[in-house]
Amino acid sequence: MRPFTALFLTLTAAAASLPLAAQGVARMDARSTNGRMVTIPAGRYVPLYSRAGAGAVSVASFRLDTVPVTRAEFAAFVAEQPAWQRSQVKRVYADRGYLANWASDLDAGDALATAGPVTGVSWFAANAYCEWRGARLPTMTEWEFAAAASTRERDAARDAGFMRHLMAAYTAPRGQVLPPVGGGEPNVYGVRDLHGLVWELVYDFNGVMVSDDSRASGSGRERDHQAYCAGAAIGATDPDNYPAFLRHAVRAGLSGRTTLDGLGFRCAADAPAGGH
Amino acid sequence: MRSALLPRPVTVLRTAVFAAAGLGLLFGVQACRDADAAEGYASSIPLRAPTAKIVGEEVAVLTTAPNVPPPITRKHATKVIVKLETIEKPMRLADGVEYTFWTFGGSVPGNFIRVREGDLVEFHLNNHAHSSVPHNIDLHAVTGPGGGAKASLTLPGGESIFSFTALNPGLYVYHCAVAPVPMHIANGMYGMILVEPKEGLPEVDREFYVMQSEFYVSDSGAVRTLDMAKGIAEQPTYVVFNGSVGALTGDDALQAKVGERVRMFVGNGGPNLVSSFHVIGEIFDNVYTEGGAQVTQHNVQTTLVPAGGSAIVEFGVEHPGELVLVDHSIFRAFNKGALGILNVTGDGDARVFANVKGISSPGGGH
After folding, report:
1. Distance between CA B251 and CA B213 in Å, rounded?
2. pLDDT digits 0-9 by tens, B239-281
3. Edge-to-edge strand order for the sheet containing B302-305?
4. pTM (two decimals)
5. Which of B31, B182, B292, B357 has the most beta carbons within 10 angstroms of its beta carbon?
6. Residue (of B175, B180, B178) closest to B190 by Cα position
7. Which residues pair with B315 in a beta bridge?
């Protein structure tokens, strides 16, 4: 686990030092969060993997994009931030698949394609985009908390029909061109497309691999949440939650520079002070 | 391999042999046979080391079931490069039932891999760019973390490479082991790798690759997917040989001729059921129980094939007709698809079998 910890710290430090984190710059329309986000009320949630005995964790209120970031939105970002254009991006921040499905640095495709979710983006690029918008990536806990909601209830992890729906959504073959964002039914928060359109990056994507502090667990040895074979069930709070295992398996394979055809993201933000 | 034994067990072994020899004087022949058995067990826990000199390099020939790569004729260890790709695709599971299979090499079961004991295997696992999820591979033939799984988590569009020495001969299952592993296996991600003993296997006329598995199928959808609840309850919709109902029947039946010797590499991908493998109208002359490297039993009617395990069966075919492969947990054969045909052609010998009087019923139920 130590190398993962080191990697994660390195990634975080590198991202923070990027000159592109556009704090305090006047907002343009492309960068406004107005109308894009909804507030997710605070609540409690039982992660698939939690510290021994911890059970449910509290999630503070936060704001979340209602749909994944589109190609058009990302194109506006790279137009303003050339360092994130395909031909300019540093290899350490994104692998060779970065925006590989675009026609050129700034041509993200036709109207249909640009209305779809941006994919082929790395964690570094997604993080920079959200910062450019004055937002951030959701934490894994925030994302999972929001994504546990069905169209009817906030925590649908025990709803067999919802689980079946997720399994079918995750395993349906994807076309070459992804459909426009917003096509999914909104969940109880009004958030769409959390499941099945694309896998989504989160801020601490390798959190499951690194968050368990062996000393805190009290066992005196590291709790190695293996992402393979039956070992993955060790320490899981709900071995029947196959969709959650699938999401964790995807995250387990990522590094900060990984890009995938089926991997996108959305942004989050802290809830305004005094908000609910 | 024997040379890898440490001195201390050898000393213990000698002591045991002397002691047993002493007992033999007292109890006669039976005690001597027990002593032989004791020696066999004591010496059968070797600490294996990849001592064989690796000569040359080759790319493994992989085959799709029911075909098996040709026997290995070389008499030395080599470096074998295995390239396998994980592919997710809809295929026919039964008539009118399409299923989104997850595969090793585009078929279920996955490609058959054949190497020789002592070979250094360089394994390349690719995951097709259109895959929805990461995959990896756990080969039961591997001595190492996760059977290779820990070194092979592969994202869509990615490649993983790891190497291992095939230390133990035998017939081994491989499977995907990414969480949730029951889903990956239930969707079809298993196959077999044969590690041929250094001395090779006896020559036969036909070799076949037959792998049983079961599917837990959603009740609706144009293309069906896994029904988790059925999987957890261990109540399969289909139990099949070689990936679909009827994969070994009709034009796809296995073929042999009277007078030929047949070897079947039989595997069981599970994910849940243990197979009672039986061939109706034949008797297994030799069984390599659980896919081990030696014949352990003769004249066997039905052999157990564990989930995630295998068996090798050998028999001569002495009479023409359709031999029927079944899981003799017989509802699975009759109602869920666990049927295959080995069609034997040639001349019959009335001394082997003859209809003397009564209604001939070749189909068993007509």
Report:
1. 21
2. 999 999 999 999 999 999 999 999 999 999 999 999 999 999 9
3. B254-257, B339-345, B321-327, B275-280, B302-305
4. 0.84
5. B182
6. B175
7. B262
The answer to whether residue A260 neighbours chain B at the CB level (below 8 Å) is yes
> Which of A162, A178, A200, A229 should be substituted to probe chain B, the one whose Cβ sees the most B Cβ atoms within 10 Å?
A229
Residues of B with CB below 8 A from A249's CB?
Answer: 133-134, 153, 178-180
Residue A142 CA from chain centroid, whole number? 9
For position A234, what pLDDT does the model report?
73
Q: Which of A201, A203, A205, A191 is nearest to A154 (CA)?
A: A191
Measured CA to CA, the distance from residue A160 to residue B208 in angstroms comes to: 41
CB of B95 closer than 8 Å to CB of B138: no
Instruction: Kindly tell me if the per-residue pLDDT of A8 is higher than 70.
Output: no
In the numeric block, the tokens 């006896």 are attached to B202
Mutate to test the interface with A, among B133, B184, B227, B232 (most CBs of A within 10 A): B133
Band (A232; pLDDT cuts 50, 70, 90): confident
Tokens representing B12?
Answer: 């213990």
CA distance A121 to A99: 6
Q: What is the DSSP string of A188-208?
A: TTS----SSS-EE--TTTTHH
pLDDT beyond 90 at B183: yes
- Angle, CA of A255, A87 and A205, to the nearest 5°: 15
- Per-residue model confidence as pLDDT tens digits over B5-34: 333 433 334 444 444 444 444 444 444 444
The pLDDT, as a whole number, for residue B141 is: 98
Q: Which of A55, A77, A62, A92 is nearest to A203 (CA)?
A: A62
CA of A220 vs chain B CAs: smallest distance (Å): 22
